[in-house]
Design a protein that fits this description.
heterodimer; A: MetI-like fold; 11 helices; disordered C terminus; B: mainly alpha; 13 helices; 2 strands; globular; transmembrane helix (chain B)
């Protein structure tokens, strides 16, 4: 069971075997995606026809590599724009919510604390359609009564931002609030005694202390947004973010250029895993 | 209480965005969906309150079959994910150390952060008729011709379990890590066997983590759209697909809203039940994940 206790040799071997098979299962789909990004064939299927970089750099002979696939590059750009807005909004609201949770006292705080967590238990598809229905209702109302047409309330990237932000704010709030909770308030009291104003204290002591959590949750928000599918699918207009475009192409029968773009996503996520999880802070925060 | 609690103006400035967020993006949209679901179109642009959308759901076997099927398969996924993940979580929390442990964590996190689309592309390449596994089976002479491994219920289950492992593993690992090894050693010294230790020490200690993992996995599986649609094709019969069809393809928002409400109801019910059974508070459980 644990290393300090004697254990049956066969049981230990069985466990080691199981763990090995488990991790192979976990990494198998990603490995084939990576391998077939380099296959010299029009389809990401066996047999292996030799190594090529065409699916990254080709722009002739019926092959369009990642770097020349305008539609794909545009969708990445859309995803980046959405993700940037989502992470800015999530971090902003996440920080202010963290102060509400940890510092403020107000009537209905219990209700607020519970309500704030609700977005995490609503399926993404339903978050998407409810925001779609609500936004359309407002847009129709404005148009019917005053002939005001608000384009951003119709399906499109601004609505995608709102849909994603609705639950990513909760995640950012929890991360930032967790760090604020561990903050030693005597530091602020000392600063106050020394004559600092509240604003100075916030700017020079509290926010710098929160910085790792703010940057971390900003990065997480960016990635969550970039990879969101369920909510995005319901709110998307004519401009497709990357996940929606990939979905469309997968249904038509994938070309290896999707493998190429997926390999890129895997490298980014590997970087994120290393930076966010494996690089433990030196001193206990 | 700390001396720097926000004063009146500060409190207002902090509350305003939070209230806007919860009201405009969460509460009112769901009220809207609720209202939509309880009305019926009686003429062009004219609507009347009605229960028709819910009656259609019960009248049409396809709809409630899909609903029940989605719920049951999600339950199976949750149980299997727990059984598959537990030994791995144990090894990571209690046995593996140092570099091996870091690598194991990375291997768990990588597929998750690499997007659901990438994972599904991988399964497509592995399982479709012209894909890696059918070709391999064919060349090894195990099958007479390459078999199509997509579009089966078992395939959907594998894909869903794969997608949910992370959400099971992380709470389990967190829960098992806080279990003091000396408790297990003491139980062993007192003559407890493997099963006793598991049943009377490990599981009770890990119960909050087990509950959190199960709730998370069940909810995410129930709300999954991509995995059943890609791996199950037209025969996936997943309830979120019905919602999508009603909303986006048929433009029948009233019916789609009723479906959404039913799914939300089931999801909330099971989250509530899971918390009730393990005697936990919603807030604690969510913070843990």
């Amino acid at each position: 069971m644990i290393p300090s206790l004697p254990d049956n040799r066969w049981l230990l071997r069985g466990r080691a075997l199981y763990i090995t098979v488990f991790f192979l299962f976990l990494l198998l789909p990603l490995s084939v995606v990576a391998v077939f990004a380099f296959n010299d064939s029009l389809f990401p299927t066996p047999p292996w026809k030799g190594f090529t970089l065409d699916w990254f750099v080709a722009n002739s002979g019926g092959r369009t590599g990642l770097l020349f696939d305008g539609e794909l590059l545009t969708s990445i750009w859309h995803s980046c724009k959405v993700a940037l807005w989502v992470s800015l909004l999530s971090v902003g609201l996440g920080t202010s919510n963290a102060f509400l949770l940890e510092r403020a006292e107000f009537r209905g705080k219990g209700l607020f604390t519970t309500l704030m967590l609700v977005p995490l238990v609503i399926p993404g598809v339903i978050l998407g359609i409810s925001i779609l229905a609500f936004a359309s209702n407002i847009a129709n109302f404005l148009y019917d009564h005053w002939e005001i047409e608000l384009e951003w309330l119709r399906p499109g990237l601004p609505l995608v931002v709102l849909g994603q932000v609705s639950y990513i704010i909760t995640i950012a709030t929890l991360t930032i609030a967790a760090r604020l909770k561990r903050f030693d308030t005597t530091l602020e009291e000392a600063a106050l005694n020394l004559g600092a104003s509240r604003w100075q204290i916030l700017r020079t002591i509290t926010l710098p202390y929160l910085k790792p959590a703010i940057i971390g949750s900003g990065a997480v928000a960016f990635l969550l947004s970039f990879e969101n599918f369920n909510t995005t699918l319901m709110l998307v207009g004519s401009d497709s973010p990357l996940t929606i475009l990939m979905y469309g192409r997968m249904r038509e029968g994938a070309s290896p250029v999707l493998n190429a773009v997926s390999l890129g996503l895997m490298l980014v996520s590997a970087l994120a895993v290393v930076l966010l999880y494996l690089r433990k802070p030196k001193q206990p925060a | 209480m700390n001396v720097l609690a926000p004063r009146r103006l500060g409190l207002f400035l902090l509350l305003a965005p939070a209230v806007l967020w919860l009201a405009l993006l969460i509460l009112l949209p769901h009220v809207e969906v609720g209202l939509l679901s309880f009305r019926e179109r009686v003429g062009p642009g004219e609507f009347a309150p009605s229960l028709k959308q819910y009656l259609t759901f019960f009248d049409e076997p396809l709809y409630w079959h899909t609903f029940v099927r989605t719920a049951l398969m999600s339950l199976v996924v949750t149980v299997l994910a727990l059984l598959l993940a537990f030994p791995v979580a144990w090894s990571i929390a209690k046995v593996a150390r140092g570099r091996v442990r870091a690598l194991m964590m990375a291997a768990i996190l990588l597929p998750f952060w690499a997007s659901e689309l990438v994972r599904m592309l991988g399964w497509l390449i592995l399982l479709r008729g012209s894909g890696v596994v059918p070709q391999l089976l064919f060349q090894l002479g195990l099958t007479a011709e390459p078999v199509e491994l997509l579009y089966h219920d078992a395939t959907i289950l594998v894909g869903l379990i794969y997608s949910s492992l992370l959400f099971m593993l992380v709470p389990l690992i967190n829960a098992l890590e806080t279990l003091d090894d000396s408790l297990i050693e003491a139980a062993y010294d007192l003559g407890g066997n493997r099963l006793d230790i598991l049943r009377r020490i490990v599981v009770p200690h890990a119960a909050p983590g087990i509950a959190a993992g199960c709730i998370m996995v069940f909810m995410l599986t129930l709300g999954n759209y991509l995995t059943p649609v890609i791996l199950g094709g037209k025969n996936s019969m997943w309830f979120t697909e019905q919602i999508y069809t009603q909303f986006i393809t048929r433009f029948n928002w009233e019916q789609g809203s009723a479906f959404a409400f039913l799914l939300l109801g089931l999801s909330s019910l099971l989250v509530w039940l899971g918390l009730k059974l393990t005697g936990q508070r919603f807030a604690d459980s969510m913070r843990r994940t």
